[in-house]
Amino acid sequence: MLDTYYCVLAESTGEKDKEDIQTRWEDIQKEVVGLISYRISNCNCRWYNEANLDTLEAVYRFSPQEYDSIFYLPHQGILAEVFFLNACLQNGIDCVPCRGSQDIKGKDFVLSDSLGDEYVDVTINKKRKSIKRKIRKDSCPTLLLPWTYKPSNNGNLPLSYAAQYLKSGGFDGKGFLARTLDLNIILLQDIRDGKYSDSNGSFPTQREQHYENNLEKILYLLRDSIY
């Protein structure tokens, strides 16, 4: 599990700083490898397993020398999943990765509380077309994740949560979930306002209503854990 103590260390270009980056990358790498390996171990789908093995190979070969080098790892989505999982664990949310066979169907994690289990998909893809495709009756809610920790400035790359962890050695899981909650409250309102609707009428379709209700349950669960 990623270090739950959050602090921002002073920037340094010394050799010790590079050693810290390697150690922190190993923290993330271990989490990613564990998540992917778990899903492969309980899935018999050939194309899914081959795709995940390719991701594993890229993760094993990757060795960032600077904290922002992680931007060039072409699998930012799986990194975001690991940080979401750790944010939930930091804040006492019962969050378990879904099996590979469930992941194929768009289910990344199952969140549990006294009222039962809720499946959730997570993504850093905020494109309207992608979100609209996910809103269907037979899908679980999709949570948008706030993957950018700080926006780009002066021509530099944006600082992701993964890059911030390599830089500082800490991850503010509560802040991550608070931003996740804010993003998805807006998303839920947009869905209710019909911005992703296939219907020309004033009322949501059955699949949209089903999606809205399930997403609202997830947001209540997140809110109760951090406030």
Walk me through this protein's architecture.
With 227 residues, this protein is α+β, with helices and mostly antiparallel strands. It is built from eight helices and six strands, in the order αααβαββαβββααα. The protein has helices at residues 15-41, 46-61, 76-90, 100-103, 128-134, 161-168, 173-192, 206-226, and strands at residues 94-97, 109-113, 116-123, 142-144, 148-150, 159-160. The strands form two sheets. The chain has a four-stranded mixed β-sheet with strand order 1-2-3-4. It has a two-stranded antiparallel ribbon with strand order 5-6. A hairpin with a 2-residue loop joins strand 2 (109-113) and strand 3 (116-123). Helix 1 packs across helix 6 (161-168), helix 3 (76-90) packs across helix 7 (173-192) and helix 7 runs antiparallel to helix 8. The protein is globular. Mean pLDDT is 87; it is low at 5-13.
Keywords summarizing the entry:
227 residues, alpha+beta, four-stranded mixed beta sheet, two-stranded antiparallel ribbon, 52% helix, 11% strand, globular
